[in-house]
Amino acid sequence: MDRDHGPGVRVPEQRAPQQRSAHGADLRFSVLGPVRSWLNGEASPSGSPQQRALLTALLLRDGRTATAAELIDAIWGDEPPSQALATIRTYASRLRKVLGQQTLVSDAGGYAIRADRDALDVNVVRDLAAEAEKARAGGDRAQARALLGKALGLWDGEALASVPGPYAENQRTRLEEWRLQLTETRLDLDLEVGSHAEAVSELTALTAAHPLRERLRELLMIALYRSGRQAEALAVYADTRRLLADELGVDPRPELSQLQQRILQADEELARPTDEPAPVPAPVRPAQLPATVPDFTGRSSFVRELGDRLATAEGSVMAVSALAGIGGVGKTTLAVHVAHQARQHFPDGQLYVDLQGAGARAAEPETVLGAFLRALGTADSAIPDSMDERAALYRSTLDGRRILVLLDNAHDAAQIRPLLPGTAGCAALVTSRVRMVDLAGAHLVDLDVMSPEEALQLFTRIVGEERINSEREAALDVVAACGFLPLAIRIAASRLAARRTWTVSVLAAKLADERRRLDELQAGDLAVKATFELGYGQLEPAQARAFRLLGLADGPDISLAAAAALLNLDVHVAEDLLEALVDTSLVESAAPGRYRYHDLVRLYARSCAERGEEPPEERESALSRLLDFYLATAAGVYALERPGDRLVDHLEPTGHTGLSFTDRHDAQDWLYSEAGPLLACVRQSSDPKVLRRAIDLLWAALDLAESGANSRQYEAAASFMLSAARSCGDLRAERRALVTLSNAHLGAGRFTQADQEALQVVESSHDAHDPLTHCWALNHLGVIAIYQSRHEDGEKYLTRAIEDFRIGENLPGEASALCNLSRIHLAMGRTASAVALARKGIEIYDSMGHSLRGANARYALGIALTRSGELTEATSSFLEALEVFRDSRQRLWEGMTLFRLAEADLAGDNAAQAASKAEMALTVLHGIGGEWRRGNVLTVLGYALDGIGQSGRALVCWREALAIYDDLGSDEADGIRDLLSQVSPERA
Predict the structure, then answer these.
(1) Which class for 923: exposed (0-12), middle (13-18), buried (19 or more C-beta within 10 A)?
(2) Strand order in the sheet with 36-39
(3) CA–CA distances in Å: residue 563 to residues 548, 560, 594, 668, 928
(4) What percent of the chain has pLDDT over 70?
């Protein structure tokens, strides 16, 4: 467990459209790479270099005849051989045998190629480029990008590769310039559509390869500026000016100087795609409003009041209307109905979110902002990390647009303030159980229950006039018993509508128990409970039991398999029950095979379970079965990912077999899709009876922490369980919780915390029945020592870990510690030993079929080989690891491997590739891995940029890295400070 484009050869079918010769054969030619021909999909013999030169000269004449003298001059220039004419005839004869007499023809003492235009890849590229230009002029930039990408994809390395002669040399230069022009146009389109962050890596490599090409430098400056890297953008200009002065004795062209000034002035127009005569693709127009109910009834005064405010939002200050009322009073229904009626006033779209304010864990504003920005067309890579930055970008994105935002089920004013638009023309509708008296400028609406007339009208619309007209008094009794609460009325009416054998009087009689009904209809949530009682009371016993027990589980939703385990039922039986509950509207089907409760319904289901309908022991058993299901399944996933790892032998026993997988990708899909419910189950299982199993579940699901996808939630759960273990006085549970939390902090780059937690395990009394905890804590300490440059400590810890893993016959653990010890030996100058240790780790992992951990070992080997100067093998090892990490969705390790590849490229004096790899690493590690790792990548990126002459950008990277190291108190700060002190004033 270690801590921490170029075009390929294409198969003929991908080269160009086919053409059919007179003989019915498919004939194609390629010059954008090696000169080749294909007949019926089979590669034809290309002949000698001079024969290929002859073919080149004919192909690039677009079917025109070339005289013998012209061909001789094309192949040999001023120094033809004595038998040049005879040689030309020999080459032509050989080519005619390959291509056919009707393709290579003799004409007026010369030769010509007669083939369809699209048989030659150059012509295909011309056509694609022309189509791209037409698409761009028409405003379809996405299509233009795609066409140019397809055109550039037809190059297969250097054009006319290895073809001799002056004609080929001139054409090679022309085609390379054409390729660069097309690339610049495609990159320009990338920037116009907002893909600036993704373009930085490619532009960095291109400017290194073509340092004097100012257009590439200009595009790089814009890409960096739009990526929030203003200082680096300015540094590119400084580097360019210095290079042009040194190499050519000239200043940058005026366009580049003007761009520098715009960046210095933080030009807002430059921060977004440039306007052109051709319109840009239409902005994403979100339409997220839920469907309005077809039987919406009453509320006419509120509809008119709110509608009038929304209709006047254009040209006025931002309109905010906040609806408040008890649960079930119809706030959401009214807000959605009004929003749909007002859509014409907000042509740029409507946003919607359920803020889950009534639940225990309300939605975080930063999460909502991320979702809104994506809905508005912002790329993931352009979304900032902090809430304040996201809120600012959100308001900027809405500026000049007319969008309606519906914020449903808000917890309080603090939750929604960052979500409010900041400009005129936009408006917000807010629903909440509390009055937003502290929301400045909001139009407050207090929503009460329906009037008797409205309530009866809603009931009638759902049930049908025929049934109501004959029992009007009974219908009035029903809506009165419902307290005129819309949600209660809707559920009651739906039950009656679904049961044709019931009369309205039967339903009224069921609501006649005033003691129970009045108790439940007093206020707030109690009113909602009374409404749900109608639906719940009609359930069959098995359905009612399922409803009660499933409501006990926390988490956003629950899968069918997990629900079956909780209910202790066969999956098919459980599915029938759940679908029946969906039919009653008590449960929602979130997706095929997944189910969820509305938050109020969940509270009601729990109250049913806790008021005596389910004995405490049955409630405990249900949640225990759910925990068993998650633990058994996660253990199976762990075992599939890590064959032979002894952890699965030391987990708490379970009473459920869980799901089993044979394919590791299916296992990973399960783990990541169940992350939310699984971690919620862990946090819910703090009782001493189940505490150990819950902590073991965290350990078995450690991929959730190491992937970076769910690291924060995982860390929070581990911290919570550590507190629970300490409260219970369970030392074994505490030690395991410390190991999981140490692992989470290690992945997040919080090494001091990780060290303290692992040290507590090692220093506590050793549990002979739980040796793995001690082993892995030692391993963690060794890894932390690597990062903190405490090499002797690290060697001591890892040596002990290896010994303990061997005693426990835990080969994967031993391999992990060996690979980490390799890192220690490398830092201590024992390179040969480091390589040998990493190879031993790989040998162990490969013998056990450990794909993912084998990748970690290859990562360690690559580091050692880089240091020993064996760069080709190091790069190969890193690339093997990178493929596995990407396949396993391990973003942290994908990013770190790209970083190590950049180091290897630097060691091999390939600064351009190093810069490209480091840029990709920064992109992948965005938001994960911690600031220390980001500082390391920035340091290497600085060296790479300096190596390609972009010293200004290099300084910016080093300064940012220094700020990170200083903030963390890391030893690396001194090295960067020394580096910066040695930079000459000219470079600074």
Answers:
(1) middle
(2) 19-20, 26-30, 36-39, 42-43
(3) 12, 5, 9, 20, 32
(4) 90
Identify the pLDDT of residue 783: 92
Question: Which two tokens mark 188?
Answer: 């320009």
In 3D space, the residue among 246, 229, 465 whose CA is nearest the CA of residue 949 turns out to be 246
Q: Which residues pair with 39 in a beta bridge?
A: 27, 42
Choice between 313 and 38, residue whose per-residue pLDDT is larger = 38
> Rounded mean pLDDT of the chain?
86
Res 768: pLDDT = 59
Whether 668 and 851 have beta carbons less than 8 Å apart is answered as: no
Whether 765 shows a pLDDT value over 80: the answer reads no
**CB atoms inside a 10 Å sphere around CB 978:** 9
Q: Name the pLDDT band for 279 (thresholds 50, 70, 90).
A: very low
Helix axis angle, 972-981 relative to 951-968, nearest 10°? 150
Residue 88 and residue 47 in contact, taking contact as beta carbons nearer than 8 Å: no
Helix (H, G, I), strand (E, B) or coil at 67: strand
Q: Which two structure tokens, joined as six digits, stand for 756?
A: 């303290």
How many other β-carbons are positioned within 10 Å of the β-carbon of residue 515?
A: 7
pLDDT in tens, 114-168: 888 889 999 999 999 999 999 888 888 889 999 999 999 999 999 999 899 999 9
- Residues 237, 260 contacting (CB under 8 angstroms): yes
Give me 244's structure tokens.
């042009």
Token pair 């990490």: residue: 885
- pLDDT tens figures, 530-584: 556 656 777 889 999 999 999 999 988 999 999 999 999 999 999 999 988 876 6
Residue 303 three-state SS: helix
Alpha carbon dihedral 976, 977, 979, 984, in 10-degree steps, equals 140
**Per-residue pLDDT at 944:** 94
Residue-wise pLDDT for 3-30, tens only, equals 443 333 232 333 333 444 434 467 899 9
- Coil, strand or helix: which one is 725? helix
- Per mean pLDDT, which range of 140-154, 376-390, 489-503 is the poorest? 489-503
pLDDT of 666-719, one tens digit each? 998 999 899 999 999 999 999 999 999 999 999 999 888 876 657 788 999 999
Q: Hey, what amino acid is at 896?
A: M
Question: Which residue in 133, 164, 159, 168 sits closest to 148, CA to CA?
Answer: 133
- Angle formed at CA 917 by CA 920 and CA 125, multiple of 5 degrees: 85
Q: Sort strands 66-67 and 110-113 into parallel, antiparallel or unpaired.
A: antiparallel
Angstrom distance (rounded) from CA 33 to CA 710: 45
Q: Using alpha carbons only, how large is the chain's radius of gyration in Å?
A: 35
Q: How far apart are CA 154 and CA 120, in angstroms?
A: 11
Q: Which residues pair with 410 in a beta bridge?
A: 432
Alpha-carbon gap, residue 724 to 742, rounded angstroms = 16
Name which of 836, 641, 714, 822 is nearest 4 in CA terms: 822
- The string over 341-379, giving b where at least 16 C-beta atoms fall within 10 Å of a residue's C-beta and e elsewhere, is bbeebbebbbbbbbbbbbbeebbebbebbbebbebbbbe
The C-alpha atoms of residue 312 and residue 321 are separated, in whole angstroms, by 13
The count of other CB atoms within 10 Å of the CB of residue 656 is 19
Question: CA 772, 777, 778 angle in degrees (round to 5)?
Answer: 100
Give the three-class secondary structure for 161.
Answer: coil
Q: Which pLDDT band holds residue 872 (cuts at 50, 70, 90)?
A: very high
Question: Amino acid identity of 895?
Answer: G
How far is the CA of 302 from the CAs of 325, 343, 443, in angstroms? 13, 17, 12
Distance of CA 268 to the CA centre of its chain: 28
Query: Position of tokens 């809104």?
Result: 372
Which stretches of 265-327 are DSSP H helices? 300-311
- Whether the per-residue pLDDT at 769 is higher than 90: the answer is no
Q: In whole angstroms, what is the distance from residue 866 CA to residue 314 CA? A: 62
CA distance 807 to 817: 14
